[in-house]
Amino acid sequence: MTTSIATKSVPFHVPSIGEEAIRAVTETLESGWITTGPKTRSFEEAFARFIGVRHALAVSSCTAALHLSLDAARLSEGDEVLVPTLTFAATGEVVTYFKAKPVLVDVDPIHFNLSAEDAKRKITPKTKVIMPVHFGGHPCRMDSILDLAATRGLTVIEDAAHAIPAKFRGQNIGTLSPMTAFSFYATKTLTTGEGGMVTTNDDALANRVSLMRLHGMSRDAWKRYTAEGTWRYELTEAGYKYNLTDPQAALGLVQLSHCEEMWRRRVKIAQKYDGLASLCCPRGAFRASHPSRPGD
Ligand SMILES: *Cc1c(COP(=O)(O)O)cnc(C)c1O
Predict the structure, then answer these.
(1) pLDDT for 292 beyond 60
(2) Longest CA–CA separation in the chain, Å
(3) Residue 133 alpha carbon, nearest atom of ligand 1
(4) Using DSSP, how many helices (H) and how many strands (E) does the chain show?
(5) What's the pLDDT tens digit per position in 261-287?
């Protein structure tokens, strides 16, 4: 057998999906619930408990989570949103959905996270939202960002696509700002193939996200096929089709139960990279290892 180049390079992603996950997804498929249902509800509850937040709202991607968060923050045409220069396209792209303007803020040279000092310089009377990204899972200096937002009346929406599990000064990412968006894309630290989550402690924001993620249907609409629900529902807004499905949630529940252990494994690998980097560039500023251990 010949070895292809693909097997020699770093692969795009290697998901940790074992027997337990395969069984959980198979059982869900056999249950007949293949769209949003009881598994999605369980995943939301488990996620909220893990993070220590009042509401966790499952959606189809982090891009959807960011879009819905901006909608809940009532972003409108002509507003400005502060986003870091170094991030994935989705962070800025969702701002343009509203005909609003993504304003680029420089990142710091050590952790590559949005600089609060540069953010301050970029604020104008039109600035409404600041979207810090915890790049590579390194938490941003949330104290400076939250202070700045409070004094200048901005809403903070965290792009935590890389940041589960991560803590800033002992507090879980997902609990600090009005809204935080997580990604469960194939390459992320916890995956459902495709998926995302919005976390918030604010009931009104949670209600808005919950309404808009499924066509703007009145809240209990997804339960309309169960004994609890009713066939009657109302479309109160033109919403989106951003719901997560039960087979994805079944995978998410298993992944979540291994989240800390997968994090420890990544730390070991990062330390190996750091060791090798120090051989070739002993005074290099970059460190791969994660500074924020759960429990710090
Ligand atoms: C991956 C990623 C997203 C988008 O996540 P999806 O779940 O694929 O929509 C957003 N922001 C950052 C920083 C990302 O890396």
Answers:
(1) no
(2) 66
(3) 13
(4) 10, 9
(5) 999 999 999 899 888 887 776 555 455
Cβ–ligand 1 distance for 161 under 6 Å, the answer yes
- CB of 92 within 6 A of ligand 1: the answer is no
Report pLDDT digits (tens) over 168-211: 999 999 999 999 999 999 999 999 999 999 999 999 999 999 99
Through-space distance between the first and last CA atoms of the chain, rounded to whole angstroms: 48
User: Confidence band (pLDDT; 50, 70, 90) for 43?
Assistant: very high
**Contact call for residues 260 and 165 (beta carbons, < 8 A):** yes
Residues 74 and 233: their CA atoms lie apart, in Å, by: 24
pTM for the whole structure: 0.91
Q: Could you please report the per-residue DSSP string of 92-139?
A: HHHHHTTT-EEEEE-B-TTT-PBPHHHHHHH--TTEEEE--B-GGGPP
**pLDDT in the model for residue 293:** 43
Q: Which domains does the chain have, with CATH numbers?
A: 19-258 (3.40.640.10), 259-296 (no CATH)
- Is-contact 187 161, C-beta < 8 A? no
Active site residues: 188
- Quote the ligand 1 centre to 58 CA distance (angstroms): 15
The dihedral over CA atoms of 92, 98, 99, 104, expressed in degrees to the nearest 10, equals -20
CA-nearest residue for atom 5, ligand 1, is 62
